[in-house]
């Protein structure tokens, strides 16, 4: 991931089906879009239109059936196969995931939830905890660093989860309904944070959302219907 001018995410004529024969579902029927550094893009569409499938393919969790995926200019999937054999490392280093429910580990404090990702990437525990505390401060939850997830409010837990997603300074951030469980004010705080991250980290951010509270907070909205962009 070295080309600094190419779009960070480039999806070219991606098709994806699940199952075969009478059980076949065409989830994506030829989807193309680019997202550049600094952009916060919304991905909307009715249930079953293919949003999660797009997110999972960008996140290198799911292989397309056809088409091409480039990340920072580098072809990652093309010609029916992955072009990198270290997808786990790519995910860990280049991509941050944020989910609707924070998915924090209940037996770890805020600091340790964030530090764990850094330790998995090879940092020492001390360095990982220092970076975790810096990030929690950046997201205004530093004062909750020793709390366990069950002791956090929904908005605090979501900010800790964002800190975790940012831990490795990924330039691609994928969020699935990150504000659905939050009230309007907290949803705006989360969107402000994502915007700041896009700018400070030159990141490309894709947010799957049905949430009308944040409908006007995107640079662009991609609208999926039945596996096609409209
Ligand atoms: N593992 C799977 N096996 C079979 N079909 C699947 C699988 N995952 C998704 N699908 C189907 O593919 C289509 C697209 O699903 P996807 O989850 O991408 O939609 P979505 O827009 O994210 O929906 P929602 O808003 O309900 O989460 C749907 O028809 C879904 O039933």
Automatic annotation (TrEMBL):
SMART domains: AAA
Transmembrane segments: none
A Pfam family this chain is assigned to: ABC_tran
CDD domains with a match to the protein in the record: ABC_MJ0796_LolCDE_FtsE
Record-linked InterPro entries: AAA+_ATPase, ABC_transporter-like_ATP-bd, ABC_transporter-like_CS, ABC_transpr_LolD-like, MacB-like_ATP-bd, P-loop_NTPase
Keyword terms, alphabetized: ATP-binding, Cell inner membrane, Cell membrane, Membrane, Nucleotide-binding, Translocase, Transport
ABC transporter domain ranges (all copies): 9-230
Any one GO CC term of the record: plasma membrane
A GO MF term: ATP binding
Similarity annotation: Belongs to the ABC transporter superfamily. Macrolide exporter (TC 3.A.1.122) family.
Listed name of the protein: ABC transporter
Native source species: Rhodoplanes roseus
